[in-house]
Specification:
The chain is α+β, with helices and mostly antiparallel strands and 913 residues long. The protein contains 14 helices and 40 strands. Among the domains are: 341 residues, no CATH class; 74 residues, no CATH class; 190 residues, no CATH class. 17% of the residues lie in helices and 47% in strands. It starts with a helix and ends with a strand. Keywords: Signal.
């Protein structure tokens, strides 16, 4: 080839190469946050009962839906999902999804990335959301408030005005101070309320009868902060409309005595009048894209600064907070030393028993042929139903509650998704852990503003716990409660305070004596609903906490008929109360409320209440689980095997008919023959009811059939259950650690054992123990108590004779429960209520002076209790943390970080075991 020809050929090659590179699109990589069920098939229908079905019929496992059936197509890889919506993958493009971080990584051209972005946006907008509201009330000189008002009036967002005032508040010597803080979160369309203040009892009315005898009425008003809010969020989350009612009382009530002459007697009647200074705001506001609004400006009514040029500005900040699934926790296991190129190692929590039904061999029926046992499935064949493949070098093993896997990223995503489907059909419980902590107000304000941008408040809780470790904050209360989806559960740890009220008098002028009781401490009520994805939870929640003990006052009055002074006892309660409905996610933490502690002498601190949520599948191993027998050397060789069966095994096949048409129970051999198992010459079957053992002599292949038949749980039995409760007390840090460790698990046996070991070491106290044994479906109770007699009320009969009415209260430990054993014979549905008295009853004396001037004293009795009412599902032989709480009634409980915990164990008792 000539030089000119070579040059021409080279030129053509360069042009072609340039054209090729020009046509090849530029690729870029984007990472998207997606729901964990991104690679997911349609929801499985509820598995039908298999109790009455032919055990030899071909069927799908009851606890593992068939993903290769028409209702459950094979799962798609991330690339296949994107291709189905029109995304193309040129050379070099790729897509991979990490099911543990919920991150989709896509490398593709700009147009394809844009299609992917639109698809991801359509998915994430469907995520449930809450609206978080932060209320800030700032007192400042009038000029500064007016300047902030002008700044806020020029924009839809008052955030700059709020920032200006908060900046001044941090300067030393500034007259700007935050006088009100609150945080509340709720769902769109759900009304939420927060009360943080004093429930003040006062004399509201005094009247005189025809004989000038006094009659008194009293009312209770909430002073401090009362806040009601109900948001409505647009579908795209960009617009929030909110109706709200706000009552703010910055100063305590003032009381003055009033004297009025009675026209009939000419004598004076005296009674107190109460003034309640405060501010009320009722309005509806709109937020565009969240932001901050200046709701109102008012004077500090009722305070010494009321007449100075000081004003209060009320700001409200609203933020839409999507509830996104958190990264799945990974078991801490060692990865293989070598992993093939293009593959990775993954470990997933998979409770023992989750694959029992999926790996059970099936009976195959051929027309005219006896039933035969299919080859036992493997984990690989099970996950292959979802489309997973196992190329050379891959690895899959299920051991000790962990599924270990070496495979390509796409196959690991498919395996993880199918594991979620396997777990989805098991019953679930929802566990809630509540923590209330006290910390410096500036710290909690800053953390609240920072956490609003995130979907989870775990980082905020961790920061406050770190402040506890530094000695800058402290735990006020910790509580744990678990229940089933759709079930309302309640838990309290409280001082049941009995106090005296006297409202009015009877027709003879004698006072009507009224005793009342109020729980002072922690009161929690929850009602969760688990979403279809088994990760999101809708929670309706009531939480009440009392920061300080109640205070009783005596209102002074004078009766004109008797000309005697008398008094009215009035009891005030400092209380925090939250009612809300929020969305949570499995493993997530939410800031439930933020407010100053009512009645607290330190005004520089706030109380923050957090709730953590866990959704736990309850997986139990059947007592009749199939264990594949070792391969037989000769299928026709005759051997003898023994099997454990229910005591009513002989009634499972019905009755046999004798030649004279009489009924008699079938023999073990007849029952097995009825399901297709043959008995060649020299073989037999025997069942002895006292031993609950079936002994069969037959060929190896027929013995395999017997093994599988027994594995289906033939027969039935009304089981007996034994439940044991342990009450333990120990250091707060230890019990909080164990509660956090147990909250995401089905079996808390390890945590209970650690505490029982600590009991032997003397660092934990074992306070009480109770055992209840009962049949399935039968309610039972156990009580260990002192029957304490106390005065319940005082009454007058028609002859003015006083009766001191007595009642009896059981003081100690009471456990009431009703277990119901599931059809699998391995799980228990347990409805229970327990009460434990954390300290002996306390008797105190209260008094009043009646309208005749007589001083009346009464002994009143307080009780210190914890009580839990719930319904849970738990596997047999497991232990469960029933409740965690701060006890009441002893000085050390208030001065030290001490918690108590109640564990319960449940065992199904079977004859012959």
């Amino acid at each position: 080839m000539s030089f000119r020809a070579r040059c021409f050929f080279l030129l053509i090659t360069l042009v072609c190469t340039a054209i090729t590179h020009a046509e090849k699109p530029a690729l870029l990589t984007r990472i998207f946050k997606l729901p964990p069920d991104f690679i997911s098939c349609e929801s499985a229908p509820s598995p039908e009962s298999t109790a009455d079905k032919d055990p030899f019929a071909t069927r799908e496992p009851a606890t593992s839906p068939a993903l290769d059936s028409p209702a459950h197509p094979k799962l798609k890889t991330p690339r296949q999902i994107l291709e189905s919506i029109g995304v193309t993958f040129p050379e070099g493009a790729s897509a991979s999804f990490n099911p543990f971080t919920s991150l989709l990584t896509v490398t593709n051209s700009v147009p394809n990335i844009e299609i992917t972005e639109a698809f991801v946006a359509s998915i994430t907008q469907q995520a449930p959301a809450n609206v978080g509201f932060t209320l800030t009330i700032i007192e400042a000189p009038g000029d500064l408030i007016r300047q902030s008002n002008a700044l806020a009036s020029r924009s839809l967002d008052a955030a700059p005005a709020l920032a200006l005032l908060l900046d001044h508040a941090q300067k030393p010597g500034s007259k700007v101070r935050v006088v009100g803080d609150a945080f509340l979160e709720t769902k769109s369309g759900t009304r939420a309320t927060l009360d943080a203040g004093l429930e003040h009892r006062y004399v509201s009315n005094v009247s005189l009868d025809a004989k000038s005898r006094s009659a008194i009425s009293a009312e209770t008003r909430h002073l401090g902060l009362h806040w009601e809010i109900e948001p409505s969020v647009s579908t795209d989350g960009a617009f929030i409309e909110t109706s709200l009612a706000l009552d703010f009382y910055p100063a305590p009530p003032t009381t003055r005595q009033l004297s009025i002459s009675d026209p009939l007697t000419g004598h004076a009647t005296e009674f107190p009048l109460t003034d309640l200074p405060g501010t009320q705001i009722n309005t509806s506001v709109s937020f565009l894209g969240g932001g901050t609004r200046l709701l109102g400006i008012t004077r500090p009514v009722g305070t010494p600064r009321e007449n100075s040029d000081l004003l209060c500005a009320v700001f409200l900040t609203a933020t839409v907070r999507r509830v996104e699934a958190l990264p799945a926790p990974q078991p801490k296991v060692t990865s293989p030393s070598t992993i093939p190129k293009g593959m990775q190692f993954a470990a997933m929590h998979a409770p023992d028993g989750v694959f029992d039904e999926a790996l059970r061999p099936k009976f195959e029926n051929e027309i005219g042929e006896p039933p035969r046992l299919s080859k036992p499935p493997t984990l690989q064949t099970h996950f292959a139903k979802a489309g997973a493949t196992f190329p050379p070098g891959s690895f899959l093993e299920h051991r000790e509650g962990v599924l270990r896997c070496v495979n390509t990223p796409d196959n690991i995503a498919l395996i993880s998704t199918m594991l979620e489907h396997d777990l989805a059909v098991f019953p679930k419980t929802v566990a809630f852990t509540f923590h209330t902590l006290e910390a410096p107000a500036p710290l909690l304000r800053d953390l609240t503003r920072e956490t609003l941008a995130s979907t989870d408040d775990s980082a905020m809780l961790a920061a406050v716990e770190a402040a506890v470790a530094r000695g800058e904050a402290r735990f006020i209360q910790s509580a744990f409660i678990e229940t089933k989806s759709g079930n309302k559960a309640a838990h309290h740890s409280a001082h049941e305070h009995c106090y005296l009220e006297s409202e009015g008098s009877d027709g003879q002028g004698y006072p009507s004596i009224i005793f009342d009781t109020r729980r002072v401490g922690s009161v929690i009520e929850v009602e969760p609903t688990v979403g279809a994805d088994s990760r999101t939870v809708e929670l309706t929640c009531f939480h009440e906490l009392h920061p300080t003990p109640p205070v009783t006052r005596q209102a002074q009055l004078r009766d004109p008929a008797s000309q005697q002074p008398f008094d009215q006892p009035l009891t005030d309660f400092n209380v925090h109360k939250i009612v809300t409905g929020i969305n949570l996610t499995k493993g997530g933490t939410k800031l439930l409320a933020l407010n100053p502690p009512a009645g607290h002498p330190d005004t520089g601190v706030l109380w923050a209440t957090f709730v953590k949520c866990e959704v736990i599948p309850q997986v139990a191993r059947s007592p009749y689980s199939f264990v594949p027998p070792p391969p037989a050397s000769d299928a026709k060789e005759i051997h003898t095997r023994s099997y454990r069966v229910p005591p009513d095994f002989l009634s499972a096949g019905g009755d046999a008919t004798t030649p004279d048409d009489k009924k008699k129970p079938k023999t073990a051999k007849e029952i097995l023959e009825a399901v297709g198992i043959t008995f060649p010459p020299g073989t037999a079957a025997y069942y002895g009811p006292p031993s609950t053992r079936l002994v069969v002599t037959n060929t190896n292949e027929n013995l395999d059939l017997v093994e599988a038949y027994v594995g289906w749980g033939c027969g039935s039995i009304r089981h007996t259950t034994a439940c044991t409760a342990h009450v333990l007390q120990g250091p707060g840090p230890l019990l909080r650690r164990l509660a956090a460790q147990a909250s995401s698990k089905s079996n808390h046996r390890a945590e209970l054992d650690e505490l029982l070991t600590a009991v032997k070491a003397g660092t934990v106290q074992h306070l009480n123990m109770a055992r209840v044994e009962t049949r399935s479906g039968t309610r039972a109770s156990s009580t260990q108590n002192n029957e304490h007699i106390f005065i319940a009320d005082v009454s007058l009969d028609d002859k003015q004779r006083i009766s001191f009415n007595q009642e009896m209260r059981q003081v100690g430990l009471r456990l009431e429960l009703e277990p119901s054993v599931g059809s699998d014979g391995a799980t228990v549905e347990l409805t229970l209520s327990n009460e434990f008295h954390t300290a002996p009853p306390l008797e105190h004396r209260e008094h009043l002076t009646d309208t005749q001037g007589h001083r009346l004293e009464f002994p009143l009795t307080d009780f210190f209790t914890t009580r839990t009412t719930t319904a849970i599902t738990l596997p047999s032989t497991s232990a469960r943390l029933l409740s965690l709480y701060k006890p009441t009634g002893k000085p050390e409980f208030e001065k030290q970080d001490i918690l108590q915990a109640i564990f319960i164990t449940c065992d199904i008792l079977r004859p012959g075991e």
